[in-house]
């Protein structure tokens, strides 16, 4: 009896197995398509943001170097940069709704690559063709490594896709791995904040690690808000869930505090150091938060995880080499340009302004009182040659140093 029913049982199970096999590739191809859409939106957004910031910077520089009395917000260039900035931010925001968080976050290296290329193309200083490759070899190598790392990230990125509904987000929010992760992150954040505020530990790693911890919560909430908006647009309304507004408030609050700490870091350290160290720390912490909250790497094999980690390391190295080649900004000191003064003749033949080197004595030509400075910082007076009107037998010193009193 059992032997006679076994062929019928096999025939009944055959169509089900065939249907299961035919559905799986369709699901994988659709998920990879979503990954590609999200990656392209992120790359487009970061590229447009880089162009927008450089346009606004160009607008400020052009107004500072001209006699145009207009404010920067009254120029078309600045408004064009603002429009592109909003467009780029919209592209990055939308990318979180399609691809996993761990894939979108490392793609911010595109903005560093674009800024390096724009800086090389539109560079203002003079250079010789034979010195170009030597001076910018680190930038070229860094761009190449960052591009290779980006390719590996897109190819071997996590392939977990989940509808960002209110039930799913609430379930992830109260899961014990994320609650444990949040507890550890809050403890680390409080300790770093204590050392930064009370012990004056103004190290770049401390400040940027505070930024990275806040940024991890920002990207987690951004993905939740963007995903729920896209699901609502598709027909399944999610805006009536309280979790949506909780995530929205957390997104705005963490973004504001993150910008505050980032502004404090920019006052203490160079922008190139902030770009490299901040990218490495923020990407690492954000990937950890995404893997804990959204379970991005669940079901991924070891090869894909290792290749994804390799892509992150290559991108980190590329960004480090790009930012390492940038010149450090020199603090501004208000020197007087002699040819800019009315009625003052130029002392040079070729019309070059009398402008001392910034690396020289800071007190020469500076608009500040140095009477209270120590002797080692006081500027030495220029030697003046004395003409000889006396007898030929009497030798006069070739020069004499004028000593000025404070009364004079």
UniProtKB/TrEMBL annotation:
Superkingdom, natural source: Eukaryota
Name of protein: NPAL3 protein
Membrane topology field: Multi-pass membrane protein
Entry's localization field: Membrane
Similarity annotation: Belongs to the NIPA family.
Pfam family, one: Mg_trans_NIPA
Organism: Corythaixoides concolor (Grey go-away-bird)
Keywords: Membrane, Transmembrane, Transmembrane helix
Keyword Cell cycle part of the UniProt annotation: no
Residue intervals passing through the bilayer: 36-56, 77-97, 103-123, 135-154, 174-196, 203-231, 243-262, 274-295, 301-322
Chain positions covered by the region annotation Disordered: 389-408
Subcellular location, principal: membrane
A GO MF term: magnesium ion transmembrane transporter activity
UniProt keyword annotation of Amino-acid biosynthesis present: no
GO cellular component, one term: membrane
